[in-house]
Amino acid sequence: MKLDPSPSAGAQEPLIIESMGDADVKDVLRIEQQSFSTTWPSNAFYQELHDNKLAHYFVGRYGGRTVAYGGIWVILEDSHVTTIAVSPDARGRKYGEMMLLHLLDQAITRGASWMTLEVRESNTVAQALYRKYGFTTVSTRKGYYSDNNENALVMWAGNLKSEIYKNRLCALRAALRG
Ligand SMILES: CC(C)(COP(=O)(O)OP(=O)(O)OC[C@H]1O[C@@H](n2cnc3c(N)ncnc32)[C@H](O)[C@@H]1OP(=O)(O)O)[C@@H](O)C(=O)NCCC(=O)NCCS
């Protein structure tokens, strides 16, 4: 299915977000290969789905087609975004944001009070998304990405269970609904 490249303004079609299963890995790998210069092999996803009790992975579907995925680890009050991506032909339609909101909801429901992630210094699109959700840069990991020795920014959002953050999510969720 080809997505409309210029969706009309206003409310976006909601993504149907579900837990990732083995049957999703093929589609996820396709998006992964189109999105990252270094990619996870399929067995990394299978291990996360089956062997890592701290891991929670999700796919987003639109019109029956998988267009997004994301994952978190939740360790008591700490949560970590391990990956998030949207199919290139479906970007700019708020699906990345819907997936991040889902990851935050899942982390908070499972007890997390803060969330961290690493992002390439050059990835200003993802950084803008994270800042919108209250993430700030707390440190830099020099040469973290082995393919080009690029630095990673470590971003952090805290007090996820506070009234202030709940209100922030509520406003962002309402804006997404249009
Ligand atoms: C990062 C990514 C997931 C964003 O998904 P998306 O569906 O295209 O983004 P959305 O339409 O949900 O946009 C949400 C926010 O992201 C930011 N954003 C999205 N596209 C942007 C662009 N072209 N320029 C600047 N900011 C942008 C904005 O903050 C935007 O909010 P706004 O519309 O209110 O300004 C997507 O670009 C992607 O898959 N990139 C490749 C993989 C990747 O880099 N993953 C992150 C690894 S840390």
Would you kindly provide a written description of the structure presented here, covering whatever features stand out?
With 178 residues, this protein is of the alpha+beta class. The protein is built from five helices and seven strands, in the order βααβββαβαββα. About 3% of the residues have low confidence. The chain binds coenzyme A. The site of coenzyme A (COA) has 18 residues, from strand 4, helix 3 and helix 4.
What average pLDDT do the residues reach?
Answer: 94
In percent, how much strand structure appears in the residues?
25-35%
Element order: H for helix, E for strand:
EHHEEEHEHEEH
Shape: globular
Compute the gyration radius: what is it? 16 Å
Structural class: alpha+beta
Percent helix among the residues? Answer: 25-40%
Topology-level CATH name = Aminopeptidase
CATH homologous superfamily title: Gcn5-related N-acetyltransferase (GNAT)
What attributes characterize this protein structure?
alpha+beta; 7 strands; 178 residues; Aminopeptidase; binds coenzyme A; single chain; seven-stranded mixed beta sheet
How are the SSEs placed, and which strands pair?
Layout: E1 16-19, H1 25-35, H2 42-51, E2 55-62, E3 65-75, E4 78-86, H3 95-109, E5 114-120, H4 124-132, E6 136-145, E7 150-157, H5 163-177
Parallel strand pairs: 4-5
Antiparallel strand pairs: 1-2, 2-3, 3-4, 5-7, 6-7
Bound molecules: coenzyme A (COA).
